[in-house]
Amino acid sequence: MAEVEQGRKQSEEFTDESEEEDSEEEPKLKYERLSNGVTEILQKDAASCMTVHDKFLALGTHFGKVFLLDIQGNVTQKFEISSVKINQISLDESGEHVGICSEDGKVQVFGLYTREGFHENFDCPIKVVALHPQFTRSNYKQFVTGGNKLLLYERNWLNRWKMSVLHEGEGSITNIQWRANLIAWANNVGVKIYDIGTKQRITNVLRDNVSLRPDMYPCSLCWKNNSTLIVGWGTSIKICVVKERNATEMRDLPSRYVEIVSAFETEFFISGLAPLADQLVTLYFVKENSDQMDEEFRARPRLDIIQPLPETCEEISSDALTVRNFQENECRDYRLEHSEGESLFYIISPKDIVVAKERDQDDHIDWLLEKKKYEEALMAAEISFKNIKRHDVQKIGMAYINHLVEKGDYDSAARKCQKVLGKNMDLWENEVYRFKTIGQLKAISQYLPRGDLRLRPAIYEMILHEFLKTDYEGFATLTREWPGELYNNMAIVQTVSDHLKRDPTNRTLLTTLAELYTYDQRYDRALEIYLRLRHKDVYQLIHKHNLFSSIEDKIVLLMDFDKEKAVDMLLDNEDKLSTDRVVEELADRPELLHVYLHKLFKRDHHKGQKYHERQIGLYAEYDRPNLLPFLRDSTHCPLEKALEICQQRNFVEETVFLLSRMGNCRRALQMIMEELEDVDKAIEFAKEQDDAELWEDLISYSIDKPPFITGLLNNIGTHVDPILLIHRIKEGMEIPNLRDSLVKILHDYNLQILLREGCKKILVADSLSLLQKMHRTQTRGVRVDEENICESCHAAILPSDMAKPFSVVVFHCRHMFHKECLPSSGSIPGVQFCNICSAKKRRPGHGILEIKQ
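Structure for Vacuolar protein sorting-associated protein 41 homolog, as requested:
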């Protein structure tokens, strides 16, 4: 069996050892040999030509036979056409008619389903035949043959065949390709294109390398579409585009012309061409010089995919093909045919037919797996899972996991389990046991399912036991991350307790045990451990599970741990732990008791009123800065007790406050002046009390103290007449900054005068504005209509008969009366008052309008 080599893929076919098998570039095509009936045919005969239809294949042989094959190569029909080589087979687009020509000059055109057609014997070999693409339709019964002449045959209305010569005189015609209305053919000189519609020849593309024998290196023609012809001859490729000529340029010229959009040379001889999207598939015949011998030898043919450019090309892929008897073949022995519908490419040689096709997603995944690119293979399978047929996403994933494990990348392998294993519990458990076998349970632990899908509890317990042996921190992390229902909580608690017997002070194990107790709702035990560890979560535990009854005798411990949090918790839950109970527990720790009572007082000045007397001593002992604010804000502390404590500790400011609070302001002022010697504070105190006798005492005490006099001059100007102080200053006494103080007094006086004048102006302006507003309001008219009523008799204010005389009184307060309904004038003659407003003790409204008629 022969081999088909593809430089970067090895499947059923043998690969070329000279190719670089480890190339990282993925091949574009895959190959398989056309077998079944073809194998038997080529064992006895040799292929000379083949034509491809989307539904079947037509193979011609050197012994003059034509075989119709299905796509797998099975023979469906056989025709004995001649005893010599079949040169060409042509099919129309429908696949219902076939044209055949042979080396002995025979030409046959007939229907596959009817034998009626054209049969002719020529006196020269006929190299090519081509049917009109629409030959099935009655008005397109046309075909051309190529020998020494290009002949067109048409069936006329009499059902007879009419022949006409399209071209002759330039040697043998070796290739014809018919597309739509355009016929392209090649002879010894070049390539021509004929428009069957306009019956005009529109171009002549000359052969580049005339040194090559046209019969040994025949021209390859291929239509990419209805207007693009690809020409390959020798080592030259040209891409020709048929375009419509502008009507103004036509004159005697054909209506179409050809533009060569790309022309370039190749490294090897061209045996066939086929389009692939915007690229080209080229079949090369390769001749190489041997290093040992001067003569040339034939190498294997190559199938390349190239990207044409205007003057060159870019190689996309290149595959050497090991076909049968390739050493004996010439360039003319190879042909390349293609099926446009499925992008299939057939490489025909005398003893072998190879099919090349574009690689699908399964092939792409095969290549990735072969190159051990499992990540990319898995991604490709996931993206195209609906299109792949030979692969399974999960199996690819499992192969990837196995690969990672073999590499020793256990963490990545475990991470992939989450994605690959999905909800397959059996696979999960198998992987867990495999990781256990290789000693890598820790790697897979964090990726185990823990949601709706759960494994057996024994699996989770096995992993926890593994962590307990070697990694306490990892064990603690898992117990926090895993829901408690994943495993038997009591069994794990017992195991942790056993470990604590060997290491009773291990903080990590104790914390974990407390968390396990909490999940098991044994909160008392958890609380004991948290308090023992002074753990920050103790307060959250108490709040969350309402453990206040359990901490009554542990208040001191909580306070020692964190005073602020403890006090906030106790005050937030006074309904569960009373103030009296807390005070009782803290009785032996006055510094903690002070913190608690101080915060209680800050929240509510009245709640702990019965402890205010006790708080005086606590503030004096532990928090003097807050003693004075406490004395100011508290209305329940005994002043005598507070005064006694402050005097004992010589707290002057607090004593001054208490004396003033108790009414002994003169003694308080005396203490400020004698003990504090602070004139500003004394003045401030006198201002607060606003007592003339205190000002007198302050002046009397300060009169012989120049610094005090300066302070008084600077500050009493708005409370006491400065003249009284100035008159009492002894002559000749030196007073610091006297001039500045006098200037300040005068400045303050002027400022007071200016303020009074300004206020007077504002008052006058406001009074005038309000007077004008009142005048406008009182002089405004008042609407009186039939909807208004008398406020006394409640009848309509206007009579039903407006012709009769009537009199109405309307007050500024908008109350209306019939004049006869009003009582007589009051004490002021001629002035009437609104009865309603007078009854409400408002300022009376004066009658402003008397309507008479």
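The longest helix spans residues 738-778.
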